[in-house]
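Model it.
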Amino acid sequence: MYERQIEKLKEDVKILLKKEEEPFAQLKLIDTLHRLGVGYHFKNEIKEALSIISIDDDNKMMEDDLYTKALLFRLLRKHGFEVSQDIFNGFMDERGNFKESICEDIKGMLSLYEASHLAFEGETVLDEAKAFTIRYLKDVNEKKVGKNLKRHVEHALELPFHWRMPRLEARWYIETYVGEGDMNPLLFEFAKLDYNMVQAIYQTNIKVVSRWWRNLGLGEHLSFARDRLMECFLWAIGTVSKPVFGHSREEGTKVNQLITTIDDVYDLYGSIEELELFTEAIDRWDINSLEKLPDYMKICFIALFNTTNEMAYEILKDQGLETIGLQKKLWADLCKAYLVEAKWYSNGYMPTLDEYLDNAWISISGSVILAHAFVSAKPKITKEALECIDNYPNLLLWSSMILRLCDDLGTSTAELERGDVSKSIQCYMHETGAPEEVAREHIRGLISDMWKKMNKDSLSCSPLSEPIITAALDLARIAQCYYQYSDGFGIPNNETKERAISLLAEPILVKE
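Modeled.
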């Protein structure tokens, strides 16, 4: 039902995209499509429109229009076009500072703030743009700018659009868009239908993984471990949200739940001696090497072994590529990193921040999540891409590092209370003598630095396909989302519940 209506409306939107010739209107339309969560339908049309604007050197258009300039920069960079930070020179004075006169243009300031989050390392103009806009936007007066614009400013200051989980942002924007003065009824209706269609697809995915988890029975035998299937499915949606990647979401949820269970084996239950044996068994990947393991570890190992081998078999059968070598290496590296942390905790050892992060970007499991999202996606996998992942490319490193640092900011206190290795905040405090809030600010700075690195590498030439690059960006986004209000995964809170209901249970009402 949804598909038939969507196909009709999609053609109408394509006509709208082609009919709109004025560059400002084109940019605004493209941005709206992205924010409504339907940009993926028009990938080629959007690329073509931006290519024409870029070729025509329309970055010189509307020289004094900060909103348009910043929007142009953000969209061009998002889609891989070369665009320099020098585009903003006209808004700076002879000393290299942004002119105070632009502060009255709140829409422009908000657009500049959003654009600054696509910075690369060393782009000091964009660093200044972020600091400058934050300083003024946080004091915006609703009476002066209006309720709608004030709401957009507050929303962006909580998390910029570039850092937000796409599907949750789509829901928020659809429900906000209806109150906008320039709301287009065609786009509004199309976005609502698409959201509901994607939600229906997610519902079929969660049925599949719920049946798998129930049949596996691992949660019943390992009562100490967290049963977080729904939270794991939200992670999978955050990492691969497009409807076409349903199989990847299902496999990703399995991987996420297995990671959660094994993490609890290392953090909560196993002795060092048992954990060393378990790590060796994972490294050897041999079903015949389990005789020394306690029963709960045997069950855990066999569940992981069978699930992973089944995934590898499906890939070999469908695509003719052998991935089990990569998969078992990733699991072994993860368990070795878990073991390092377990020994640190057991020995009361406090690592330096660098020492901690060198291990923790692996122990956060981002590489395992992303690699399995990639190999289980339906587009053809290349040997070059598999070899690239096997060597842990920087894109996986930056994404995993953001996940680790966001996790630490959100879960540090709770995990230390239940018994866990010191996190990045405590390592920095111990190493420098800084108070906790200073340490937290340092970690937030590191997150911004990682985003700059990832922004650059996501646009660089790479054997990695577009889906894995997008997944790496989206993993960082779901991390920002889950740990925005403390620990939304380890200790599910009201925000996590509301987000699950929003994504999976409550459709957006559509007029008959």
